[in-house]
Design goal:
Largest sheet: 2 strands, antiparallel
Strand content: 5-15%
Shape: elongated
Distance between the termini: 61 Å
Number of helices: 1
Structural class: mainly alpha
Helix content: 40-55%
Order of helices and strands: EEH
Number of strands: 2
Radius of gyration: 20 Å
Number of domains: 2
Protein backbone atom coordinates (compact mmCIF):
# COMPACT_ATOMS: atom_id res chain seq x y z
CA UNK A 1 0.00 0.00 0.00
CA UNK A 2 1.08 3.53 -0.79
CA UNK A 3 -0.25 6.74 0.72
CA UNK A 4 -1.20 9.54 -1.64
CA UNK A 5 0.99 12.61 -1.21
CA UNK A 6 -1.87 14.93 -2.12
CA UNK A 7 -4.95 13.65 -0.31
CA UNK A 8 -3.47 11.06 2.10
CA UNK A 9 -5.57 8.08 1.00
CA UNK A 10 -3.95 4.62 1.01
CA UNK A 11 -4.05 2.70 -2.29
CA UNK A 12 -2.24 -0.27 -3.92
CA UNK A 13 1.39 0.43 -4.86
CA UNK A 14 2.05 0.97 -8.56
CA UNK A 15 -1.41 2.39 -9.17
CA UNK A 16 -2.83 5.90 -9.08
CA UNK A 17 -4.90 7.35 -6.24
CA UNK A 18 -8.61 6.57 -6.78
CA UNK A 19 -9.66 9.88 -5.16
CA UNK A 20 -7.44 12.47 -6.86
CA UNK A 21 -5.76 10.37 -9.63
CA UNK A 22 -2.23 11.43 -8.59
CA UNK A 23 0.45 8.87 -9.42
CA UNK A 24 2.95 7.61 -6.87
CA UNK A 25 5.80 9.19 -8.86
CA UNK A 26 4.87 12.62 -7.55
CA UNK A 27 4.71 11.80 -3.86
CA UNK A 28 6.76 13.39 -1.07
CA UNK A 29 9.00 10.33 -0.63
CA UNK A 30 10.48 10.52 -4.12
CA UNK A 31 14.09 11.70 -4.54
CA UNK A 32 14.80 14.98 -6.26
CA UNK A 33 15.15 14.65 -10.05
CA UNK A 34 17.97 17.20 -10.01
CA UNK A 35 21.45 16.28 -8.91
CA UNK A 36 23.55 19.02 -7.36
CA UNK A 37 25.56 19.63 -10.57
CA UNK A 38 22.43 19.90 -12.70
CA UNK A 39 20.84 22.35 -10.32
CA UNK A 40 23.94 24.58 -10.27
CA UNK A 41 24.23 24.44 -14.08
CA UNK A 42 20.61 25.58 -14.42
CA UNK A 43 21.20 28.39 -11.93
CA UNK A 44 24.33 29.48 -13.82
CA UNK A 45 22.40 29.47 -17.11
CA UNK A 46 19.73 31.67 -15.55
CA UNK A 47 22.39 34.12 -14.32
CA UNK A 48 23.98 34.25 -17.79
CA UNK A 49 20.66 34.98 -19.49
CA UNK A 50 19.90 37.66 -16.88
CA UNK A 51 23.34 39.26 -17.37
CA UNK A 52 22.97 39.30 -21.17
CA UNK A 53 19.51 40.84 -20.92
CA UNK A 54 20.74 43.44 -18.43
CA UNK A 55 23.66 44.32 -20.71
CA UNK A 56 21.45 44.69 -23.78
CA UNK A 57 19.00 46.91 -21.91
CA UNK A 58 21.83 49.03 -20.48
CA UNK A 59 23.40 49.51 -23.93
CA UNK A 60 20.15 50.40 -25.71
CA UNK A 61 18.86 52.79 -23.06
Amino acid sequence: MTTCGLCGRAYPAGDHCPDCAMTAGFGPNRPSPFRSGTLWAMAAGLVVVYAITLTVVAITS
